[in-house]
User: Fold this.
Amino acid sequence: MWLLDDGVLTVNPQPEPAIDFHLAGAPVALLLLFWNRLSAQRALLSGQLVGWGRRPMLGLKLRSLMRNP
Assistant:
């Protein structure tokens, strides 16, 4: 599980309930999304990614919070 809090990303191997947003998807789609090769809107509309939670629109902002390595 990835937790993004105030710009700090932490990885926790023990899943916890998502507070605002949960994202699930195909591994290739997630990799392409995080490397800015696929837009979140396109992946969501094609069914490669699924987002849910109290604030699902946060999924569209996720890519802007990451930098390519």
Notes: DSSP finds three helices and four strands in the chain. The CA atoms of residues 1 and 16 lie 7 Å apart. The chain has a mean pLDDT of 80.
